[in-house]
Specification:
- By secondary structure, the chain is an alpha+beta fold.
- The protein has three domains: 281 residues, no CATH class; 294 residues, no CATH class; 54 residues, no CATH class.
- The protein is built from 22 helices and 18 strands.
- It has a six-stranded mixed beta sheet with strand order 9-8-7-6-5-16.
- A hairpin with a 2-residue loop joins strand 17 and strand 18.
- Helix 13 packs antiparallel against helix 14 and helix 13 packs across helix 16.
- It is elongated.
């Protein structure tokens, strides 16, 4: 009767399809759930024992009987390094699967708990490898169904009362009749997340914030999906001393021994849910958080969280595998950030005149001062921008819904290359309008006109077509150049060259073609300066919203609310970035008009020469000092007295030229 019951309710497991071949972690590389025979009696698997005295080999190709009675310190070691899996485990599993050694199997177990009526029918899934934020050999997940009857025979004619799916260190429960629970006849349909194998009730991107055993990161069960119908193998109630199920008496690890969350997992018989199924079930969650499709404007906090966790855990895994390499990366990043901050000039921060050369640091601080000076008007512009973006997004949503178009992006394919983007078409049309109002505000300030909310928006309508079109043309051309692969370097160059097309339209009232040419002319001779400053402002536009919103993901606030908070922060940053980019444009205009170039400061010996060689009261003009310093730097490299210290000094002086003159 127990086997009949296990067959009747054997789950149907949905897993992300492996459409792009091996080694794509976003797809499922280790499906279906399979038999432990995959790692037992396998000549490439070793059984090891570790304690304070070291590690020793117990047996190669261990069988079930070899595991019986073993516990703490014992572990199975599969071929490969779990902290640097590469494609090793995926290829090994694929080979075992082709050889017929990885059948679709789920282990069924009837569990009872003293003091509770009824019983639960558990289904355990074994996987060859876990390739998620945590990396470990072997993986156990599963689910269970609760019955409020005494025997399996009675359960064959009764309905289950509750179902629980296992997820990392916790789970999610639902009533058997809950609409979330999909079924084919009596078989529940569950979804296994790619790589982590956490089990869910639906197809979505799920967010784990570490609460109630949910794990930390994002579990992906989205389409395309492959259906597996694993065969139910009934486990005995008590671990046998021998035979094929002797491994039930094994409490060691089913994968290589590693520190923390990368350690191989222990088997089902060691879990609390095995011994106390009802108590454990009562502590599970009633719902799993999903990642919304996106924020109203700006980057989604939840989606950023997914990527951030993946990068942080990737770095931690690297640190565990190669401490020296990870330390070098961390030190290199600190040196890079600190070097950039020290190479630029931060003072003085004069707002007037607005059209003047400024270094990166001066632009950042001057932008902040200008924003604060006109905060009321700029915030009103930002709120109006939010209203425009929200209205356009709503219209786009209604149109897509009427046309039954899913998603919010577009795909380009050709020549064997595919480009996919999730950018909203409505947002692509509305964003240039929002940024144009800020540019117009700065333009009015620079010209001494009355600058305000109304006057800024008045400048936009009659140039509306050009403001939108020039951005779309520039973006489209950059994408098309990138699609050729060999055109990527030129696409990057033109992306920087065309940074100020909108400023050209609003300041000079140019046509689309002339705006692109005008922007290129302004950037010429200052390309690196423009690239560094523009990149800095782009980072500042993307980071604050998600960074401030991440802290709220670990509270009880709904994920949608957190995303809205991130959007609000993004809106507040829009004027700052718009002002900063326009000040950069005025910086380039000033450099072009005066012929000044961001140059390194004069070395002390050059300054001494200026003082000693020049007659009293006849010092060189300030504009000549940077040029003399540049000549001095070039002469230093040619000097027979050249030394490594002097070489580095000259390089630092030249690097400083990228950020502006002191």
């Amino acid at each position: 009767m127990a086997q009949q019951l296990a067959d009747k309710y054997a789950p149907i497991v949905m897993m992300r399809s492996q459409d792009d071949g091996l080694c794509d972690k976003s797809e499922e590389q280790y499906g279906p759930p399979t038999s432990v025979g995959l790692v037992l009696n396998n000549p490439k698997v070793r059984l090891l024992f570790h304690n304070a005295h070291g590690t020793r080999l117990v047996k190669r190709a261990p069988v079930a009987a070899d595991l019986a009675g073993l516990g703490e310190g014992d572990y199975l070691d599969l071929p490969g390094n779990p902290l640097r899996p590469g494609c090793t485990y995926a290829k090994a599993f694929a080979a075992l699967k082709r050889a017929g050694h990885a059948p679709a199997v789920t282990y069924a177990h009837i569990a009872r708990q003293p003091g509770h009526s009824g019983f639960v029918l558990q289904y355990w899934f074994f996987y060859y490898f876990n390739q998620f934020n945590d990396l470990h050999e072997g993986d156990w997940e599963g689910m269970q169904i609760a019955f409020d009857v005494a025997t399996p025979a009675e359960a064959l004619t009764a309905s289950p009362t509750e179902i629980v799916v296992f997820q990392h260190a916790g789970g999610e429960h639902a009533d058997w009749d809950d609409p979330r629970v999909e079924k084919e006849a009596s078989h529940p349909v569950v979804y296994s997340a790619a790589g982590s194998h956490a089990t869910f009730f639906g197809s979505a991107l799920y967010l784990g914030n570490g609460q109630n055993g949910s794990g930390v990161g994002c579990d992906n069960t989205t389409e395309p999906l492959t259906t597996f119908r694993p065969q139910a193998v009934l486990l005995p109630d008590e671990p046998p001393v021998g035979g094929p199920f002797a491994w039930l008496d094994y409490s060691g690890r089913w994968g290589q021994r590693e520190a923390g969350f990368n350690n191989g997992p222990a088997g089902p018989n060691t879990k609390r849910v095995w011994r106390e199924p009802f108590t454990w079930m009562d502590a599970t969650r009633s719902i799993s958080l999903t990642v919304p499709g996106g924020a109203l404007v700006g980057p989604s906090v939840a989606s950023t969280f997914c990527g951030a966790v993946a990068h942080v855990t990737g770095f931690l895994n690297l640190a565990a595998s190669t401490p020296l390499g990870s330390t070098a990366i961390a030190v290199g990043m600190l040196v890079l950030v600190g070097g950039l901050a020290s190479l630029t000039t931060w003072r003085p921060t004069r707002v007037d005149p607005m059209r003047q050369p400024r270094a990166l640091g001066q632009l950042l601080l001057t932008t902040a001062r200008l924003y604060w000076r006109h905060v009321a008007s700029l915030l009103l512009i930002a709120l109006a921008s939010l209203a425009i973006l929200g209205a356009v997004n709503a219209i786009e949503f209604l149109v897509r819904r009427a046309l039954d178009v899913r998603g919010s992006g577009f795909d380009l394919a050709g020549g064997g290359l595919e480009i996919s983007t999730s950018a909203s078409i409505g947002r692509a049309l509305a964003t240039p309008v929002a940024s144009a109002a800020v540019i117009a505000f700065v333009r009015d300030l620079e010209r001494g006109h009355k600058a305000g909310f109304a006057t800024s928006w008045k400048a936009v309508p009659r140039r509306l077509w050009r403001l939108i079109a020039v951005e779309l043309v520039a973006t489209s051309l950059v994408i098309l150049l990138s699609a050729t692969i060999i055109g990527i370097p030129y696409a990057i160059k033109k992306f920087v060259d065309w940074q100020f097309a909108q400023q050209e339209v609003l300041f000079e009232d140019r046509s689309i073609r002339d705006a692109l040419r005008g922007s290129t002319g302004k950037v010429r001779s200052h390309w690196w300066h423009t690239a560094v400053v523009a990149t800095t402002f782009w980072v500042l536009s993307q980071v604050p919203g998600p960074a401030l919103g991440l802290m709220f993901l670990f509270t009880t606030l709904p994920v949608t609310t957190v995303n809205m908070f991130g959007s609000a922060i993004f809106v507040l940053v829009i004027p700052y970035v718009g002002v900063g980019r326009t000040l950069l444009y005025l910086d380039l205009v000033a450099r072009r008009q005066t012929g000044t170039v961001a140059a390194p400061p004069a070395p002390r010996r050059v300054e001494r020469r200026l003082k000693t060689d020049s007659p009293p009261g006849n010092h060189l003009p300030a504009a000549s000092r940077p040029r003399l310093a540049a000549r001095e730097a070039a002469e230093t490299l040619k000097s027979p007295r050249f030394s490594p210290a002097r070489w580095w000094t000259v390089r630092l002086l030249k690097a400083d030229a990228l950020f502006g003159s002191r």
